[in-house]
Amino acid sequence: MKYLKKILMIAVPAVILNVWLLRFNLATSYRGGNATNMLEEFAVYGLNDTIAYLVGSLKIIASIGLLAGFYFEKAIKPAATMIAILMIGAIAMHLKVADDAIKFLPAGLMFLFSSVILL
After folding, report:
1. Positive or negative CA dihedral for 6, 20, 64, 109?
2. Contact at 8 Å (CB) between 76 and 69?
3. d(CA 103, CA 23)
4. CA distance linking residue 52 with residue 37, whole number of Å
5. What confidence tens digit (pLDDT) does each residue in 47-66 have?
6. How would you class 89 by CB atoms within 10 Å of its CB: exposed for 0-12, middle for 13-18, buried for 19 or more?
7. What share of the chain is helix, strand, coil (3-state, %, to 5)?
8. DSSP state letter for 48
9. pLDDT class of 1 with cuts at 50, 70, 90
């Protein structure tokens, strides 16, 4: 379990940082509704750009917190908790707009992985 936790502490930030820093303006098959970028996706959910940037900032900070957890163990629990909470919100937004299950699979996996880290 110790090694799984460490693997997930790398995998979760890798996915989140990829989405928010590298794929922010790119279309993916996981975007809500018919959105082609992150800001359009938040608009699909009825959320404005400010909320998108706030959520993105929290996800990036929490991801960095998980990585910092390799050196500062006390950073792990708050970072993983923040990611889990944000992923519950992401899943709720996908459900709100009746997205296909495949679209909220990444958020579901990040929630599951963050929960495992917390255990």
Report:
1. negative
2. yes
3. 15
4. 11
5. 999 999 999 999 999 999 99
6. middle
7. 75, 0, 25
8. -
9. confident
Burial class (CB in 10 A: 0-12, 13-18, 19+), 60: middle
List pLDDT tens digits, range 65-107.
Answer: 999 999 999 999 999 999 999 999 999 999 999 989 889 899 9
What pTM was estimated for this model as a whole?
A: 0.89
Residue that has been written with the tokens 């082609």 in this structure: 36
Sequence-separated (6 or more) residues with CB below 8 Å from residue 38:
19, 20, 24, 25, 31, 52, 56
- The residue type of 4 is L
Distance CA 10, CA 7 (A): 5
CB 96 within 8 A of CB 112: no
Which token pair is 81? 């908790």
How many C-beta atoms surround the C-beta of residue 114 within 10 A? Answer: 25
The beta-strand segments (E) located in 6-114 are none
Q: Under a CB-based contact definition with an 8 Å cutoff, are residues 88 and 48 in contact?
A: no
